[in-house]
Amino acid sequence: MRIDLLAGTVYHPAVMPPHVPTILVFDSGLGGLTVYAELIKARPDARFVYAADDAAFPYGRLSEAALVTRVLAVMEALVAAHAPEIVVIACNTASTLVLPHLRARFSIPFVGTVPAIKPAAARSASRMVSVLATPGTVARDYTQDLVRAYAGDCAVELVGSTRLAAIAEAELAGAPASDAEIMAEIAPCFREAADGRRTDTVVLACTHYPLLLPRLERLAPWPVSFLDPAPAIARRMVELIGAPLLGHEGEEEARAVFTGTGAGDTLKAALAARGFTRIDTGALAFAMA
User: Fold this and answer.
1) Cα 201 from chain centroid (whole Å)
2) Which of 19, 76, 1, 23 is nearest to 254 (CA)?
3) Side-chain half-sphere of 203: how many Cα atoms within 13 Å?
4) What is the 3-state secondary structure of 91-148?
5) Which tens digits make up the pLDDT trace of 257-286?
6) CA 119/CA 131 separation, integer angstroms
């Protein structure tokens, strides 16, 4: 408290409220919701914007050059519109190809998503690991380099699924695939060696896949550990922007933004259940190039 002797009044200096960060979570579709679920646990005070570039989903059908151009253009608009303190790229494909370009273009920090091959190798007792990913992630040198660097003493099976990401999106929208359809995508992950050892760890190298985790666990022919990178991504985010502000939990609205047509009623209900109070479809005027 201070006394202004000239005016003879008593006043309290203004106290600036603590700054609540805006965190942008970006994916080609809704797989990044599995990452968002961990991020909000780590920073429940933050203002979240979830951006789905559904107009270009799936990213795997774009050439590498087209994907880089696309993500840079969409990110320019998102950063201008929402001014985030940090961006989480909740997509393996975009992370492995576009992160260096994003970090060169923008001054804010970016956290990417990479296949959890290092922790899988550390965890595996049988030394038999499978990496379940999109065909593009399986084929990239980045993935091969991770295997060589961290899993050289393991038998690593790289399994490229062409349909599982779309199946996960359909599941969230209330149109689940059959068990047989899912099993056809994951069956190559489960290997048995001549000495009786079996695959005991499966890396979920696409953020869409944990949306199907209960079904994956039920359909697995024997128990395995399915590794989801989301908790590690959340820890890295906190390292970069700090711990939550006490007393601000749950005060900020979460917003979902779609570049395309976005969500039907079932999907909007699923988003609302995850705390998204605003859902903007076609918020960014991007069409497929």
Assistant:
1) 20
2) 23
3) 32
4) CHHHHHHHHHHHHHHCCCCEECCCCCHHHHHHHCCCCEEEEEECHHHHHCHHHHHHHH
5) 998 876 667 777 778 888 888 888 766 655
6) 12
- pLDDT confidence of 18, banded at 50, 70, 90? low
The helix or strand, by DSSP H or E, that contains position 169, with its residue range, turns out to be helix 164-172
Q: pLDDT: is 47 or 284 the higher one?
A: 47
Which H or E run includes 27? strand 22-27
Distance CA 265, CA 57 (A): 19
Q: Are 276 and 50 spatial neighbours (Cβ–Cβ below 8 Å)?
A: yes
Rounded to the nearest 5 degrees, what angle is found at the Cα of 256, between the Cα atoms of 255 and 262? 150
Question: Position of tokens 């270009």?
Answer: 56
- Two tokens at 51? 């951006």
Query: How far is Cα 281 from Cα 261, in angstroms, rounded to an integer?
Result: 6
Nearest-angstrom CA–CA distance, 120 and 227: 7
58 preceded by a cis bond (ω within 30 of 0): yes
Rounded Cα distance, 97 and 143, in Å:
11
Among the listed residues 72, 75, 92, the one whose alpha carbon sits nearest the alpha carbon of residue 83: 75
Per-residue pLDDT at 91 exceeds 80: yes
Residue where the block lists tokens 């599982």 = 164
Active site members: 91, 206
